[in-house]
Each structure stands twice: as structure tokens, then as C-alpha cells.
């Protein structure tokens, strides 16, 4: 219950306001009350919140859906990509709604860029499916529906975690990944300038 | 640490998990509560507080749905009562715990901390009035620490519930720092605005695809927000002045600025329900002003209608003083509704009509003598609907139907010819097909026998085959219209005007053509019958009443004839019979001829019926029995015996060839009844004074008998009764004829008799043995 033992008022937790000393059972006289000095822990009068702030939608809305997997190409050159659909009201994103298609290797590229340039610990991607690509293995391998669905979930979790991080939001590579139709791997890495 | 964006907030719980999660939480609560109470029994307060804190910790969850959270909350707050009672007991016995208010704030997590603080704070208030004001202020402010919508709403609800009976309710502070009603108002208003903020914010929590579920969850929690308003209404010291200057403006400020449709809709309704009607009357303009500023998605009309109905009820309640005369209630609402119509170009016609209907209800209920109010409403509705003239036909029809239904529900009367015209103009899409205009109707009406043409006439009745569904819809619409006709009432005194109203109604409704008039004109006719009776009752005050009655029946006669021409013989027949009954009751000049005329029309229709087997089938579908007895009854009521006799005889046909549904299309051939009718007719004939007439009647009767006897040939019906009676009649006729003085009339009678006998002879000689046998009794 007690995060610290109460032995003396010197170790009083900082959130406690000295105003509350008034509520001791022993009633202080008016004189004593008036003599109390304003202290570091005195309650601050909050500024009245404007209606705008109170009722407008919070500016932390960020939703990324990884959906609509599609397999392109034939035989050996087949690959699967996913739609990355973004909706946001964060000021840092140029487009409030965007939709691009990305494949697994694009995610790998993003992860590598972020690991190198940003200070964050980048989460892991879902598995590479190496075992599934062995010859003579039954089933559709990496084009198997179940596998694609598992991968999709993993990618969705990954991108939401990453895109929500303010330090990742500063990186150009993230914005290119999320909101530009094609990734220019020859781009100049760097930080996004905040206007 | 990652910045948490909304989509990561785990607020989408799966239903199956909910039960499990809730059960787990509840069992923790029960365990901790038990421990807490055990410690309290042993007066170990610190330990008890630790258990209480553990228990309250279950309310920190993000995994429960509002429903489950509520259940958990109820159990925990129940248990918290024990703690409160213990502390109250201790304090009252003088065993005050040192610095308890400060002590509980050492709890590590904010949820247990604040719940405990509220509990302790209330104990402090209940035990000493000092610093009540400060504690209340402190508590309502400290709750700001929880910004999570669900948890915050329930926390603030706990605050409201705990402080229910300790809010100061006096104009002046009774003791220093004990607070006055102003402080209570501030307290509750702050709590309300914070709760509204959290409630509105709920919709933004979580993925967009869950939006509908979140809205549903918000609805489940609306009561939490509304309780603030209830609390305000329970403060007795708030008078209309304070409500108007302090309370309502603050509430409306939140409502209008939150811009959230769900909140606005609920809170506005709540205000209407929770505060007294006198307050609403005093603040009408402010309230209506706010209504005009609401989010377009809010169904403002519902709010307005609620308010109008409530104020109408208030004004018309027994013992109420009514609306104060300095409040032009009708004008206020009229204006506001006009503003709303202006500001919302997409206001649906149904909404428009229901608004106007409520206003009409107000006008009629509260301002009975202001007929101009009702006029005004009809006028505005008309122009409102005209503006929406680009409506397509089905919508127009449904709007019109809605208007009519509303009128029926409210019993709205239409008291003058002009208003009838206005109303029928308003719903003209129901009255007639487009193209049928007044000129055609006028022509039709003067012709009296034609009501817009035959069913086959495409121009008046609309082209195209009638489908099953169309017919059903038409029937519904038109019966609605028919019922509304009964609302065309000028009131008990203005009988002449009433006749005018009925004439106007017929004129306009006739343009509907055959398909429609079968529904819409009968009410007009019945209203006319009623009117005649009323004229009769008024005979002392109006010496022209006889003439008027006659005119009314002429009107009815032509109407019903017109109906008959529209291939509606059953309907016309019934109307004629009913008319005859009515006429009989009213002794105006020559009312007997009128009655006879009505009945003979009825019978001629009937005869046409039986001669055309095709028509019989539709007649069979009617309920035969009442029609039969009605007709017989009507027949016997005719004033003159000869008429009675003839009529009753004709009724015999009903019992013979009528095909009631029970017999599934077969003819009744109720020989017994037939015999009875004819016997009765015979008796009536015998009461005639004029011998010649008697003979005539008897001859006619014999013809009837012959008819039935011949009809029975080949069946096993026993017509011996009939035959013998016929034979007796023949004898009687001979007797009378022999004593008759020769005259033009008697010539005629003789001839008829001879012809009859001749006919019978020829039949019996036709070779058919059975017929011969039957007729043998006639002693030809």
C-alpha cells in the first residue's frame, strides 16, 4: 500500500499538495493558515480548457491496415504483396490518407534503414519462411493462404508499432515507405523537417 | 517506451473472453473485500485500506467492455460502503484517524487513490461541516487525474453518488466554508462538463471499423452523464432565476460546443425531462436557440415534439393555470420551426409534417379558440410541401398519408369548407390521379350520375393494369382518406355549413374516379345521414329543416346512384337501405316517397344482381345475413302497406337465390323463409283498404309463388305449402275481382290476373309431370 514509509513530512511524495495540510483533524486557526508560505508543492490553478481542446478529436489518430494480399507473376518469379492503408490526423504525416502496395523485402529494407539511422530498438519482422521454400515440400509454400495470413498479421503489428514512434516518424524512409507509390532505394537518407 | 497511438489502445474485447475476464475480476474483488472486512472487524485500518486498494485495483483494467466494467464497479462500490460506514462510526465515536485524507493519497495507483479519497472525503464532510466546500472542490478537481473515458466516467459517477446527500442546498453559507448552493452548482456543472468531454471522446478510441460498437457502448453509458442533470434538479434552492441565469446557460454551452450528435440528442432530451415545466416556459427562447445550433445529424424534431407535447400536457392538466398569457407559446414554436425548416433544406417531408402535427396538437389543446392557429399550420405545411414539390409520387403519397394519419391520431377537425378544400388540395396526390382536374370534376358532378367515369376509362383513373399490390396500396390510402372525411366537422351548431362541407368534399373526392370513390364517398354519405338526423333534432330552432333534410337526401341519392354506376352495386345497395332506415326516422314532407325511392333503387339493384350471375359472385362475398335482415326490416318499415307488401315479397328472393359464403356459392333456397316472406306479404296485402289494390298485390304474389314453384321443379324441395297458399290466393283474387267495379284500373288488374293464370296453365301443360303435379293444387 505504502510506496514509502511515512516517518516525517520531509519525505512527503511530490504530488501531495501542501494545501491538504488544512484537513488535519486538529483545526488550524485562521492566523496559522494565512501565515503559510507558498511552497514548491502548492497546487497550481490549471488554465481553463477551451471548448476546442475539450471536444475536438484527439490528434493522436493513426491507423495502418495491412490487407488485400495479392500474388503476382508466374511460377518461379512469383511474389506476394500487401496493401498498406493508412489513416491519420497526426501533423507529421503529409497525407492524411494513403494506400500503397509493399512486399516483404520492402519491409526488410525499412527495418534495416531504421536500425541504422534512428535511435529506436526496431521490433522484429515475422519470419522469412526459408523452410517453406525447400524443394519437394508439399503445399503452396510461401504462397500458402495460412502462411500469408500469419505474415500479414505480423507485418501489421510491426508497422503500427514502428509508425507510432515519434523517433521513427522523423525518418524520411518511413514516410517514403508509407506514403509514396514506389520506394526509391537510391534516396538520400535523412530526417523529416518539421514545418 | 513507445508513444501510444489510439489504435494500440486495447479496447476491442472479444465477447467470449469478457465473461472469463469479468469472473476473474469478480473473484479477486470478493476475496479482497472479505479480507478488508475481517481487518475492519479487528480494527486494523491500515491493512483494511491495503485490501481496499487491491480491490479497487481491478477497476484499472482496459480489457472489460462497459457492461462488464459496470458489473465490476457495482460490486466494488457496494463493498466500499462497508469501509465508509466503519469510518463514519469511528469518527462519530471521536476516534478520528490522523491525517486520513492525506494518508490515502499514498496509494501507488491513481484509481485506488481517488476512489479512496472520495470515500474518505465524504466521511469528513458528514462528520464536520467545516471545509465541506473545500473538500468538494478538491475532489471534483482531483478526478481530472483520470483521463481514460470509461474509467473516468465511472469514477466521476462514484463521486456523484457518494456526495448525493451532502451537497449544500442553501442560499447563504450557514457556516464558514460550508458552502452554498452556488458551490453545489459549480461542483455539479464541472463534473458534468468533464464527464461529457470523456463521453464524447469515447468514440475516438480504437479502430475505425469498431465505430458502431463504440457508439452502442456510448449509448449504454448515457445515464452516467445524465445523473449530473438529475442532481441539479434535486437541489431545491435552485429557483427559476438561478436556473435561467446560471444552470441552463452552462449546460447549453457544453451541449452546443461539443458538436457531438449523440451527446446533444441525449442531453437536450434529458433537460426537458428532468427540469420542471415552469422552468422550460421561462427559458424557451434560449433552449430553442440552442436547438437551432445543434449538429445537423441530431433529430431536432424529436426534441421539439417532446417539448411541445410536454408543455401542452402541462397547460391542459387539471388544476394547472395554463400557459402564462405573456408567453406567446404558439408563436415561439411556430417561429422556431420555421427557422429550422429554413436552416435545414434537407429536412424530410415526414419530419416537416410531424413537426406541424405537434404544433397543431398544441394549438388545439391549449388554444382551442384560436382557429387561425390551425389555419396557419395547414398553410405552412402546404407551402413547406410545395417547396418540396420535386418530390416523386410515392414520397408525396407517403407524406400525405402520414399527415392524414397524424390528423386521425390527434383527432384534428377540419371545420370549414375552405379548410376542406385546402386539406384535400394538400393531399391531392391521394385524392386523384394527376390530370384529373376540377373542371372535369365539376362536369362530372353536375351530371350527377357519373363520378369521374367508368373504371374502364383510362383518362380519369389512370392507365395501366392494376396489380395486386397496387390495389392493396390504393385500398389503404383511400380508406385513410375516407376516415379523414369523418373529421370534416364544423362543430355541433353549424349545420348548414356542415352541409356545405360535405358538398365540397364530394365535389373534390369525386375526381378520384371509380377506384377511389368506393372508399371515400360512403363516409360522405353517412355523414350526410347523420346530419339529417341532427337537423331533425333541431327542428324547433330551424323551420326550414324539412326542406334541408330533403335536400340532404337528394344529395345522398345522387351520390349513391353515381356509385351504382361505377359498378359498385353492393355498396350502393347497402347505402340505399341504410338511407331508407334513416329517412324513415325523420318525418319530413314526403319522406315516405323518399324512403320508397331509396328502397326501390336498392331492389332494382338487387334484381340486376340476380339476373347477372357474374355479379352474384361478388355479392356472395359480402356478409349476407345482415344484409338480408336489414333489407327485410327496412321493407317492413315502409309507410304504406302496399309498398311494404311488395318489398317483403321481393325479400323472398334474398332467401332463395342469395348465395352466402357459408354455402360456397350455392343458392340458399331457403324455402321456409321464402314461404314466410310471402305469407307476410300476403298478410300485409290483406290489410290494404283498397280492394283493387289488394287484388293487384295478390296477383303479384301469385306470380312470385309460381316462380318459386317452378324453380323448385327437379329438386326435392317440398313446395306443397307454397302451392296450397298460392291456390288460396288465387281463390281470393277471383273473389275480389268478381266484386270489383269496372274501371281502367280494374281492367288492368283483371288482365294481369288472366295473364298469370294463363302462364300457369301453359306451364302445367308443358309436359313436365312434376310441374303439372305441383301446379295441380292451384286449381286452375
UniProtKB/TrEMBL annotation, chain A:
Q: Tell me which SMART domains the record gives.
A: PX
Cellular component terms per the entry's GO annotation:
early endosome membrane; Golgi membrane; retromer complex
Q: What keywords appear on the UniProt entry?
A: Cytoplasm, Golgi apparatus, Lipid-binding, Membrane, Protein transport, Transport
Q: Which organism is it from?
A: Macrostomum lignano
The record's section on PANTHER family has: RE52028P (PTHR45963)
Q: Which residue range or ranges hold the PX domain?
A: 60-184
Question: What topology in the membrane does the UniProt record assign?
Answer: Peripheral membrane protein
Membrane as a keyword of this entry, yes or no, is yes
Cytoplasm: present as a keyword of the record? yes
Give a short account of what the protein does.
Answer: Required for retention of late Golgi membrane proteins. Component of the retrieval machinery that functions by direct interaction with the cytosolic tails of certain TGN membrane proteins during the sorting/budding process at the prevacuolar compartment. Binds phosphatidylinositol 3-phosphate (PtdIns(P3)).
Gene3D superfamilies named among the record's database cross-references: Phox-like domain
For this entry, list what GO says about its biological process: endocytic recycling; late endosome to Golgi transport; protein transport
Give the residue ranges for region: Disordered: 27-51
Give GO MF terms, alphabetically: phosphatidylinositol-3-phosphate binding
Name of this protein: Sorting nexin-3
| InterPro entries associated with the record | PX_dom, PX_dom_sf, Sorting_Nexin
Q: Where is the composition biased (Polar residues)?
A: 38-48
UniProtKB/TrEMBL annotation, chain B:
The membrane topology term of the UniProt record is: Peripheral membrane protein
A Pfam family in this protein? Vps35
Gene3D superfamilies, alphabetized: Vacuolar protein sorting-associated protein 35, helical subcomplex Vps35-C
Where's it found, cell-wise?
Answer: Membrane
> One GO term of the cellular component aspect?
retromer, cargo-selective complex
Family matches, as InterPro entries: Vps35, Vps35_C
Q: Which UniProt keywords apply?
A: Membrane, Protein transport, Transport
**Role description:** Plays a role in vesicular protein sorting.
Q: Which family does it belong to?
A: Belongs to the VPS35 family.
What is the protein's name according to its record?
Vacuolar protein sorting-associated protein 35
Amino acid at each position: 500500500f505504502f510506496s514509502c514509509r511515512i516517518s516525517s513530512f520531509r519525505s512527503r511524495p511530490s504530488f501531495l499538495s501542501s494545501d491538504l495540510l488544512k484537513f488535519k483533524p486538529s483545526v488550524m486557526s485562521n492566523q496559522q493558515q494565512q501565515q503559510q508560505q507558498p511552497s514548491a508543492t502548492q497546487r497550481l490553478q490549471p488554465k481553463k480548457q477551451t471548448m476546442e481542446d475539450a471536444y475536438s478529436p484527439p490528434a493522436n489518430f493513426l491507423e495502418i491496415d495491412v490487407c488485400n494480399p495479392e500474388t503476382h507473376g508466374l511460377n518461379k518469379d512469383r511474389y506476394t504483396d500487401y496493401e498498406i492503408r493508412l489513416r491519420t490526423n497526426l501533423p507529421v504525416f503529409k497525407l492524411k490518407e494513403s494506400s500503397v502496395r509493399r512486399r516483404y523485402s520492402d519491409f526488410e529494407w525499412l527495418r534495416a534503414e531504421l536500425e541504422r539511422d534512428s535511435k529506436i530498438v526496431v521490433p522484429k519482422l515475422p519470419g522469412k519462411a526459408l523452410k517453406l521454400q525447400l524443394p519437394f515440400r508439399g503445399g503452396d509454400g510461401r504462397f500458402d493462404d495460412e502462411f500469408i495470413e500469419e505474415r500479414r498479421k505480423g507485418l501489421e503489428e510491426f508497422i503500427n508499432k514502428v509508425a507510432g514512434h515519434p523517433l521513427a516518424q522523423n525518418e524520411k524512409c518511413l514516410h517514403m515507405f508509407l506514403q509514396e507509390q514506389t520506394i526509391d532505394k537510391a534516396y538520400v537518407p535523412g530526417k523529416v523537417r518539421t514545418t | 517506451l513507445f508513444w501510444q497511438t489510439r489504435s494500440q489502445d486495447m479496447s476491442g474485447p472479444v465477447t467470449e473472453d469478457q465473461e472469463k475476464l469479468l469472473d476473474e475480476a469478480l473473484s479477486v474483488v470478493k476475496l479482497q473485500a472479505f479480507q478488508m472486512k475481517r481487518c475492519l472487524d479487528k480494527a486494523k485500518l491500515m491493512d483494511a485500506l491495503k485490501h481496499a486498494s487491491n480491490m479497487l485495483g481491478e477497476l484499472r483494467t482496459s480489457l472489460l467492455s462497459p457492461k462488464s466494467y459496470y458489473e465490476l464497479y457495482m460490486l466494488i462500490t457496494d463493498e466500499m460502503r462497508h469501509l465508509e460506514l466503519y469510518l463514519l462510526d469511528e469518527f462519530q465515536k471521536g476516534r478520528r484517524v490522523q491525517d486520513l485524507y492525506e494518508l490515502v493519497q499514498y496509494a501507488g495507483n491513481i484509481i485506488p487513490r481517488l476512489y479512496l479519497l472520495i470515500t474518505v472525503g465524504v466521511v469528513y464532510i458528514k462528520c464536520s461541516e467545516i471545509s465541506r466546500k473545500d473538500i468538494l472542490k478538491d475532489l471534483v478537481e482531483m478526478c481530472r487525474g483520470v483521463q481514460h473515458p470509461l474509467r473516468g466516467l465511472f469514477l466521476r459517477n462514484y463521486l456523484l453518488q457518494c456526495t448525493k446527500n451532502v451537497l449544500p442546498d442553501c442560499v447563504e453559507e450557514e457556516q464558514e466554508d460550508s458552502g452554498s448552493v452556488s458551490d453545489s452548482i459549480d461542483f455539479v456543472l464541472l463534473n458534468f462538463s468533464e464527464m461529457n468531454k470523456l463521453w464524447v471522446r469515447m468514440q475516438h478510441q480504437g479502430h475505425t471499423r469498431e465505430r458502431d460498437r463504440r457508439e452502442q457502448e456510448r449509448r449504454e453509458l448515457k445515464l452516467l452523464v445524465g445523473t449530473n442533470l438529475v442532481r441539479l434538479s434535486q437541489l431545491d434552492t435552485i429557483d427559476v432565476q438561478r436556473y435561467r441565469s446560471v444552470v441552463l446557460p452552462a449546460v447549453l454551452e457544453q451541449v452546443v460546443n461539443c458538436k457531438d450528435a449523440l451527446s446533444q440528442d441525449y442531453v437536450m432530451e434529458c433537460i426537458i425531462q428532468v427540469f420542471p415545466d415552469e422552468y422550460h416556459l421561462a427559458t424557451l427562447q434560449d433552449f430553442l436557440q440552442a436547438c437551432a445550433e445543434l449538429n445537423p445529424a441530431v433529430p431536432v424534431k424529436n426534441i421539439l415534439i417532446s417539448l411541445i407535447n410536454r408543455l401542452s400536457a402541462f397547460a391542459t392538466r387539471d388544476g394547472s393555470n395554463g400557459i402564462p398569457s405573456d408567453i406567446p407559446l404558439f408563436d415561439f414554436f411556430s417561429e422556431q420551426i420555421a427557422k429550422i425548416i429554413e436552416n435545414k433544406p434537407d429536412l424530410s417531408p415526414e419530419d416537416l409534417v410531424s413537426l406541424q402535427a405537434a404544433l397543431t396538437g398544441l394549438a388545439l389543446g391549449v388554444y382551442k379558440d384560436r382557429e387561425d392557429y390551425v389555419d396557419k399550420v395547414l398553410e405552412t405545411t402546404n407551402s413547406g410541401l410545395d417547396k418540396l414539390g420535386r418530390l416523386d409520387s410515392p414520397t408525396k403519397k407517403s407524406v400525405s398519408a402520414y399527415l392524414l394519419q397524424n390528423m386521425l391520431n390527434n383527432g384534428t377537425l377540419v371545420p370549414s369548407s375552405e379548410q376542406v378544400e385546402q386539406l384535400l388540395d394538400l393531399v391531392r396526390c391521394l385524392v386523384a390521379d394527376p390530370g384529373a382536374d376540377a373542371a372535369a370534376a365539376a362536369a362530372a358532378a353536375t351530371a350527377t350520375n357519373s363520378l369521374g367515369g367508368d373504371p374502364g376509362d383510362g383518362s380519369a383513373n389512370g392507365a395501366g393494369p392494376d396489380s395486386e399490390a397496387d390495389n392493396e396500396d390504393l385500398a389503404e390510402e383511400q380508406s385513410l382518406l375516407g376516415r379523414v372525411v369523418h373529421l370534416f366537422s364544423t362543430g355541433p351548431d353549424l349545420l348548414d355549413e356542415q352541409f356545405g362541407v360535405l358538398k365540397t368534399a364530394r365535389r373534390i373526392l369525386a375526381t378520384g374516379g371509380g377506384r377511389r370513390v368506393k372508399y371515400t364517398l360512403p363516409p360522405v354519405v353517412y355523414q350526410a345521414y347523420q346530419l339529417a338526423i341532427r337537423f331533425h333534432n333541431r327542428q324547433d330552432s330551424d323551420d326550414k329543416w324539412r326542406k334541408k333534410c330533403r335536400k340532404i337526401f337528394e344529395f345522398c341519392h345522387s351520390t349513391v346512384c353515381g356509385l351504382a354506376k361505377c359498378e359498385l352495386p353492393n355498396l350502393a345497395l347497402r347505402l340505399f337501405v341504410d338511407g331508407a332506415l334513416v329517412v324513415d326516422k325523420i318525418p319530413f314532407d314526403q319522406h315516405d316517397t323518399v324512403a320508397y325511392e331509396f328502397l326501390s333503387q336498392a331492389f332494382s339493384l338487387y334484381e340486376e344482381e340476380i339476373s347477372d350471375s357474374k355479379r352474384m359472385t361478388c355479392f356472395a362475398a359480402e356478409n349476407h345475413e345482415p344484409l338480408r335482415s336489414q333489407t327485410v326490416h327496412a321493407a317492413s318499415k315502409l309507410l304504406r302497406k302496399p309498398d311494404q307488401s311488395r318489398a317483403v315479397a321481393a325479400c323472398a328472393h334474398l332467401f332463395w337465390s342469395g348465395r352466402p359464403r357459408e354455402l360456397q356459392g350455392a343458392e340458399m333456397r331457403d324455402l321456409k323463409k321464402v314461404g314466410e316472406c310471402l305469407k307476410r306479404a300476403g298478410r300485409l296485402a290483406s290489410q290494404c283498404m283498397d280492394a283493387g289494390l289488394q287484388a293487384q298485390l295478390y296477383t303479384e304474389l301469385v306470380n312470385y309463388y309460381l316462380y318459386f314453384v317452378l324453380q323448385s321443379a327437379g329438386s326435392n324441395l317440398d313446395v306443397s305449402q307454397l302451392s296450397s297458399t298460392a291456390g288460396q290466393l288465387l281463390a281470393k283474387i277471383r273473389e275480389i275481382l268478381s266484386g270489383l267495379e269496372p274501371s281502367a284500373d280494374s281492367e288492368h288488374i283483371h288482365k294481369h290476373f288472366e295473364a298469370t293464370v294463363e302462364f300457369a296453365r301453359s306451364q302445367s301443360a308443358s309436359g313436365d309431370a312434376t310441374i303439372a303435379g305441383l301446379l295441380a293444387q292451384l286449381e286452375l
